[in-house]
Amino acid sequence: MPVPGFPPSALDDDGDPKWITELACADPNHILHAVRGLDPRAALEVIGAKPHLIRPCALPESKPDDWTSLPGAALGIEPGTSAALLAGQVGDWTFVYDDSGHTFDDATENLSASGRTAATSVFTINGDASMSFAVDGEQVAWINVDDLVEDDLAGFPEELRTAFELAGVVEDENLEPGQFDCAVTMRATCALAGLTVTLDDLRTLPLLGAPLG
To answer: Are 6 and 179 in contact (CB under 8 A)?
Structure first.
């Protein structure tokens, strides 16, 4: 596999998209959703946000401590009390960042209903990484990074395969030939949705936030 097709400044030392790292708290347990053809407010509602709690969200310049994400700080959420959701739109794609991993169950299928395409990338505090890809309400692929090898890409839908090829592999001496690093699903979700952005780019967007849980 090639090296990631991202600008070098767009990735952190572990290969994660830097804008996600800069949103996250230390040792994150987080999720990135991406859906084509659904606006940010609707996407937040689909994954469980209560409409009356959704509001404009201006990201602060910094986090108050290691355990508070930027969206959590913006929404005034105390760590451990609820998840902070952040949503915005880039081109045809909407992203929703969940800083605490509350929104996994059926989210991809629900986001992709009515002919849409959606993906969900999960990274847990234990270092487990996975990705779900759905079209028109049906899961088309589920990828566990621990089991993923390069030959698997041939069986992916073309759009998903292209995203993984762009995501590439970050060099790691602990990887066997053909294996993928654990940040690949976050990169692939970003590649799929054109989310090769910076945190400064996000600050220019009309962002929405909501607590959940």
So the answer is: no
Cβ(193)–Cβ(38) under 8 Å?
no
Q: Which residues, listed in sequence order, are joined to residue 55 by a DSSP beta bridge?
A: 209
Closest CA to 202 of 82, 72, 86, 116: 86
- Give the model's confidence band at 1: pLDDT under 50 very low, under 70 low, under 90 confident, else very high: low
| Per-residue confidence band for 2, with pLDDT thresholds at 50, 70 and 90 | low
pTM above 0.90, yes or no: yes
Residue 16: helix, strand or coil by DSSP? coil
Of the candidates 188, 167, 175, the residue with the CA atom closest to the CA atom of residue 146: 175
Across-strand partners of 135? 117, 138
Q: Which amino acid is at 19?
A: W
Which residues have CB under 8 Å from 148's CB, separation 6+?
A: 179, 180, 184
Q: What is the mean pLDDT of residues 166-177?
A: 81
Helix, strand or coil, per DSSP, at residue 106: coil
Task: Identify which of 59, 22, 8 has the alpha carbon closest to the alpha carbon of residue 203.
Answer: 59
Nearest to 167 by CA among 185, 148, 149: 185
Around 50, how many Cα atoms within 13 Å sit in the side-chain half-sphere? 6
The residue extents of the domains of the chain are: 8-212
Tell me how far apart the alpha carbons of residues 48 and 58 are, in angstroms, rounded to a whole number. 21
